[in-house]
Amino acid sequence: MAPRVNPSRAPRSHASWHGKLTQRAILAALVPTLVSGTACVGSTVSGVPLDAGAPATPPTSALAPRPRLKFAPEDETPIDFEKLNRLDTDGDGILDGDDNCPGDPNSNQADADGDGFGDVCEPTPRLVDTATTLTLNPSPARVGQPLTLTVTVRNTGSQTALSVGASIPLPEHLELVSLASSQGSCTHDRWSSVLCKLGDLPAGRALTVTIQCTPSTTGSLTVKAFALTEALDHDANSGNDMPALSLTVLP
Fold this sequence. Notes:
This is DUF11 domain-containing protein. It is built from three helices and 15 strands. By secondary structure, the chain is mainly beta.
């Protein structure tokens, strides 16, 4: 007679035993979390807790009041141009809106050159002319041989030219050797331009910038120079401020 087997003690298959063990391990790991009531709180999608629900709105009292933005055009009193035009600042009997020199008495409104400025307040032109010339020696030049560039700035006007500056962009195949100026100072930047601050230049006087360089390859080059005076001066002839020369470099 075959022995009776208790069903509860019957051997289990390996798969059934492994499944039960896995379930128990998962439950054992979740018990502390389930007991504490924090299950799933840490689960997020795109940074938002899954059980967070609708975003909480902070109480009104917790929000800092937004400062009122101020815009100058709204806060400032508009300028009344009509009122200003009805003034007579210089007391010459002509309203400022019609006066060609509202700050200087000129009841006759004389304007010899017809430029809209009365003769008594006509801006005084700065009669300066920074005539600029450029020489290359020798020309044509030879590869590896010294070449001298000389820039001369002469003030052919009747008044002092203030804060004269000069710029000489060196072509790619001219290698700088030395740099000098008769007044002021010059520098050479990484873009191969010579920049000079040359100071004031009295009427009838001239200054020079001398550049020694060496051609590194054959061909035709264009050498340019440019000189100017400060923006408040009026150059009598701006057409002679930027000379340019062609240079042939031989082997």
